[in-house]
């Protein structure tokens, strides 16, 4: 038996959008269960996101610390952002986020992993990239605002992030998944075996 997620869509008898926000919305679907019963499911509709685990020449990961109001925590994270434009190339979006949040560019890119962070309540899909061969971007820094104006930037050894995740000290999904996935890749076939940066992404199809 192949352990692989497969697309499937159960019958929806009715759907509504009771709330629409700036970037996301809430949808209510009446879904037909295998036994014929109809169950109502509420979930957040999300455009999708990209994140970047950027590793420097000293095996340190570029991380940011940002306040997240819903969980009332200041979290250590990796650079990430929304896919604001339908069909947007995720690599271009990831490169933009790395520049805007860290004022850094990378010469080498791979797809590290693709995840659904909260599939029970949100349709968000996230592509996490691995980037290395880093250098600072010349010119003025991108102007940040709101929570991002209070961000901290650091470079932390990968092993320290893995330890923090396993110790329950680091909680951001993209950081946790990215750090553990990169550690597994380095212990296995190496980063050269990762998918190319332009690998297809069925969850969020994009233009080349």
UniProtKB/TrEMBL annotation:
Keywords attached to this entry: Hydrolase
Keyword Signal: no
One Pfam entry name: NUDIX
Gene3D superfamilies in the record: Nucleoside Triphosphate Pyrophosphohydrolase
InterPro entries noted in UniProt: NUDIX_hydrolase-like_dom_sf, NUDIX_hydrolase_dom
Domain annotation Nudix hydrolase: ranges: 44-178
Name of this chain's protein: NUDIX domain-containing protein
Organism of provenance: Streptomyces albidochromogenes
């Amino acid at each position: 038996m192949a352990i692989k997620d497969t697309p499937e869509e159960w019958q929806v008898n009715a759907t509504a959008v009771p709330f629409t926000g700036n970037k996301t919305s809430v949808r209510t679907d009446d879904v037909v269960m295998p036994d014929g019963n109809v169950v109502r499911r509420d979930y957040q509709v999300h455009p999708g996101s990209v994140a970047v685990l950027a590793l420097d020449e000293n095996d340190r990961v570029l991380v940011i610390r940002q306040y997240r109001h819903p969980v009332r925590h200041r979290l250590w994270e990796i650079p990430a952002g929304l896919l604001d434009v339908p069909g947007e190339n995720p690599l271009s979006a990831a490169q933009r986020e790395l520049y805007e949040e860290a004022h850094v560019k990378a010469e080498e890119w791979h797809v590290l992993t693709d995840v659904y962070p909260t599939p029970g309540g949100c349709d968000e899909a996230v592509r996490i990239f691995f980037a290395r061969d880093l250098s600072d971007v010349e010119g003025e820094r991108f102007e940040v605002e709101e929570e991002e104006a209070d961000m901290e930037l650091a470079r932390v050894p990968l092993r320290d992030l893995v330890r923090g995740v396993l110790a329950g000290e680091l909680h951001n999904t993209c950081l946790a998944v990215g750090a553990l996935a990169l550690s597994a890749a380095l212990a296995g076939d190496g980063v050269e075996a990762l998918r190319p940066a332009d690998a297809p992404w069925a969850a969020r199809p994009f233009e080349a």
